[in-house]
Amino acid sequence: MQQYFIKGEAVSNLVIEDQDTIKHMFQVMRLATGDQVVLVFEDGIKRLARVVDEKEYRFEVIEELPDQVELPVDVTIACGFPKGDKLEFLAQKATELGASQLWAFPADWSVVKWDGKKIAKKIEKLQKIALGAAEQSKRNRVPDVHLFTSKSDFLAAFDQFDSILIAYEESAKAGERAILLEALSNLASGEKLLFIFGPEGGLSPDEIVQFETKGGRKVGLGPRIMRAETAPLYALSAVSFALEMRH
């Protein structure tokens, strides 16, 4: 069944006003009066709804649904600005795997340099990708996307997290394999986890020191060295396995 995210509080009768949503519902998917869909309001609760007037884009909410597919912890994926369209790829795949937020920051070894105007356009594009992926994967929430203009702003946001893990290539090369499992095993439901990844060139020694000073812990992600766009997906899969599949 089709699922759509609706801005605002849940109401029993509503008229869809967002033009992109209207286009997808009634032109692409050809919804008609009497058809049923799942609507997800900002409270994250899924509700079964029926089209009562396809010309006025009017819906009636029938009932709440118990379906809850969010990870038991909030995972924020933070990456150094990567090249090409890797953030677009990550926005889609990290959403499917349950990330609550996708962040990116200007890492010391990031090749690309984005100004405020470029960042604003990038965020808009990434948010649309995350919305589509959240609908496809039947999420209860759409991940937030934020691109930091400075490293200092990124570091200032660390205080909101219960745990901070730094994916570090040198830890993997050294054969370190225990910290990730330990950290995930100690997470409690509802906690907030920040998982940091470098760009193509990795994280600089200075960045490692900065992140550790703010409470971060270096972790290896197994014996193989992964690309910048692959490592976050491995991490999210590990979180899901540790907290969902093993219980």
Automatic annotation (TrEMBL):
Principal location class: cytoplasm
Gene: rsmE
Single GO MF annotation: rRNA (uridine-N3-)-methyltransferase activity
EC code(s) of this entry: 2.1.1.193
Protein name in the entry: Ribosomal RNA small subunit methyltransferase E
Top-level taxonomy: Bacteria, Bacillati, Bacillota, Bacilli, Lactobacillales
EC top class, as a word: transferase
SUPFAM superfamilies: alpha/beta knot, PUA domain-like
Localization in the cell: Cytoplasm
